Amino acid sequence: AQSVTQLDSHVSVSEGTPVLLRCNYSSSYSPSLFWYVQHPNKGLQLLLKYTSAATLVKGINGFEAEFKKSETSFHLTKPSAHMSDAAEYFCVVSGGSQGNLIFGKGTKLSVKP
Amino acid sequence: DAGVIQSPRHEVTEMGQEVTLRCKPISGHNSLFWYRQTMMRGLELLIYFNNNVPIDDSGMPEDRFSAKMPNASFSTLKIQPSEPRDSAVYFCASSKYRVNEQFFGPGTRLTVL
Fold first, then answer.
1. Which residues on B lie below 8 Å from A105 (Cβ)?
2. d(CA B54, CA A100)
3. What is the pLDDT, as a whole number, of residue A97?
4. Which residues contact B25 (CB under 8 A, 6 or more apart)?
5. Is A24 an 8 Å CB contact of chain B?
6. pLDDT tens sequence across A76-106
7. By three-state DSSP, how is residue B84 classified?
8. Which of B4, B43, B101 has its CB closest to that of A103?
9. Residue A94's Cα: distance from chain center in Å?
10. Which among A70, A104, B9, B21 could disulfide-bond with B77, CB atoms 3.0 to 4.6 Å apart, if both were Cys?
């Protein structure tokens, strides 16, 4: 069965410092993996996706994620946080019981000035 | 493309009233998903359709909830009768295929008094 675990419910960084949001997945086959971002009072927006091509995936707004099969991880990173990055981030894996997407519980990112 | 369109954006109603939420998916997408998001339970998949056919409604809380997709460009989620615990943000999302990335609408914020 497929599942996804976001290891931190809340991450706080200072502006200009690196961001690391951690995600581990479980899948019985090669999954597709996604990161979504949700700004306050907004819908979810796709940041990036992995679909078995390059293991390092670049997304919008300077974010990237690396697929590591040996660690079953898909952590999201950004070299330098910006105030506008403050939002909630969801790690998502494909392949639920009916083949749909499974969402993690989310990590809230706070950025301090 | 206009993206996924949801209406209304905000709905305030009284307990016992019928509520209908509407969604127009992105043209050409053949899968449509209804989600509910609350602080307590996070993002929950309620039901999804593939080619206008409901595939999995196991997330629908109870018989008070029903969803229809009469054609490829329109879906409704109905709550009758509504209860205060139904207060949440309801998102509609669509995708080209079931396991591909989903594109989310802006959501409908429902408040049941």
1. 42
2. 13
3. 54
4. B4, B32, B72, B73, B75, B92, B94
5. no
6. 999 999 999 999 999 999 865 555 788 899 9
7. helix
8. B43
9. 13
10. B21
Q: Which chain B residues are closer than 8 Å to A94 by Cβ?
A: 99
Residue found under tokens 């670049």? A58
Q: Per-residue confidence at A65, pLDDT binned at 50, 70, 90?
A: very high
Contact B101 A34 (CB under 8 A): yes
- CB–CB of B57/B76 below 8 Å? no
pLDDT in tens, B43-89: 899 999 999 999 888 889 889 999 999 999 999 999 999 999 999 99
CA distances from B77 to B9, B33, B69 (A): 14, 11, 9
Query: How much is the pLDDT for B37?
Result: 94
Token couple for B55:
């595939």
Least confident of A99-103, B16-20, B21-25, B27-31: A99-103
The residue type of A32 is S
List the one residue out of B20, B32, B18, B55 whose CA is nearest residue B105.
Answer: B32
- For residue A106, the chain B residues in CB contact (below 8 A) are 42-43
